[in-house]
Amino acid sequence: MDENSVGGVAASSKKTLWKVIGASSLGTLIEWYDFYIFGSLAIVISTKFFPPDNPTAAFLSTLATFAAGFVVRPFGALFFGRLGDIIGRKYTFMVTLLLMGLSTCAIGLVPGYQTIGFVAPVLVLVLRLLQGLALGGEYGGAATYVAEHSEPHKRGFRTSWIQTTATVGLFISLAVIMLTKSSMSAESFDDWGWRVPFLISSVMVVVSYFIRRNMDESPLFKKAKSEGKTSSNPLKESFGNKYNFKFVLLALFGATMGQGVIWYTGQFYALSFLQNVCHVDFDQTNFIIGTALLAGTGFFVFFGWLSDRIGRKPVMLAGMLLAILTYRPIYDRMYQLTDVTVKQELVDQQRTEGNILMKAYDDGSTATWVSEGESVKQTVHVGKGAFFSIALLVFIQVLYVTMVYGPIAAFLVEMFPVRIRYTSMSLPYHVGNGIFGGLLPAVATYLVTKAQMANTAAQQISGNAPYEKPHLEGLWYPILIAGVSFVIGLLYLKNKNQNVQ
Question: Where do transmembrane segments lie in this chain (predicted)?
Answer without folding.
Answer: 20-45, 57-79, 91-110, 116-140, 161-180, 192-211, 247-266, 286-307, 314-331, 386-415, 427-448, 475-493
